[in-house]
Amino acid sequence: MKGHHQRWLAAVWLALCAYGAVFLVLFWEDHGPKGSPVAQADDIHCERNWLLLGTRWSCTAIVTDQGVLYRYTSDSSLLTPADTSVPMQRLAPHHFAPARASFTPAPWPTMGAVTLVALGLVGSGVLWQNSRAKRPAVKAEVRRLRAQARWYVGAGVLAFLAAYFAHGLLITARADIWPRRAEGTGVATSCNQDWRYLGAQWRCSVDITAETGQKLTWTMSHSQFTQADIGVPKPVTAIGTRWEAVDQPYEHRFAKALFVLLLVGGVALLVKPAFDLARVRNLENPNLPLRFLPVR
Asked: If we measure between CA atoms, which residue out of 36, 55, 178 comes closest to residue 98?
């Protein structure tokens, strides 16, 4: 197997082991014994969790705890589409789970995740080291590096585009602060599709009446209001100097991690061709030191 093939195999092996570790941890997240109910979850909506290959339900709900509303999200089937109203136990401040027993094979998921991470690091390290044992002929290496440069640049641009959409659709369009208190009422007067996100979201002009009696017009993006909401009053809240709809999907806890990974990946993919082109110049230099010459 060629050296660069082994390096790709090392990256794939590390990614698969990392995914397996995440899968094991998330599959049984927050599962455990029955506790005392202290709150109630209502307004439950569920969809398949494709991060776990559709084997679990990802559900959101509104939890009422002594009159205060919290947005609750479960990605490990603690709630299901069959649930309409569920008593909740408190695991930590602002952290709830259904007050019913759910099976968990602890501590095996955590131990399995640690084992997979160790296997990924060791296996990828061995493959990477083996990939550098043999050096290809200079001309073949130059052709390979030049051919791969354009693919790295294209992949880097795609990673930056994915980061842009992840930020707009998974972070900016979702609430990261709960509970959210209603501080006024908003009525959408006109809406247009937001082509910054290929028309996947709505951008609306909203007339807001604050609790203080102040009236203003605010433009809300990210489908906080849609065309179907025109003329329908909805509660809004002030977040700093801007206004947002109160009822928004809760920001997924991995959204920012995904955004950062895409940014870092994009930078790495764009830096790699620059590094390779420097190697090409060194390989094409007829006065190379002996250590750069191919092994015969």
From this structure: 36
What mean pLDDT, rounded, does the chain reach? 83
Spatial strand order in the sheet of 56-65: 68-74, 56-65, 39-49, 86-92, 95-98
DSSP, res 52: G
Residue 292 binned pLDDT confidence (cut-offs 50, 70, 90):
very low
| Burial of 230 (C-beta count, 10 Å sphere; 0-12/13-18/19+) | middle
CA atoms of 129 and 111, how far apart (whole Å): 27
Q: What percent of the chain has pLDDT over 70?
A: 89
What tokens does 136 get? 């290809």
Identify whether 286 is preceded by a cis peptide bond (ω within 30 of 0): no
Rounded CA gap, 3 and 117, in Å?
23
Torsion from C-alpha of 198, 202, 203, 206, nearest 10 degrees: 180
pLDDT band at 251 (very low <50, low <70, confident <90, very high): low
CB of 62 closer than 8 Å to CB of 73: no
Residue 30 pLDDT: 85
Phi-psi region of 82 (alpha: psi -120 to 50; beta: other; left: phi over 0): alpha
Q: Is 118 helix (H, G, I), strand (E, B) or coil?
A: helix
DSSP label of 28:
T
Q: Convert the pLDDT of each residue in 140-182 to its tens digit.
A: 777 877 888 888 889 889 999 999 988 888 877 776 555 667 8
C-alpha angle 17-159-226 in degrees, rounded to nearest 5: 110
CA distance 16 to 116: 9
Contacts of 126 (CB under 8 A, 6+ apart): none
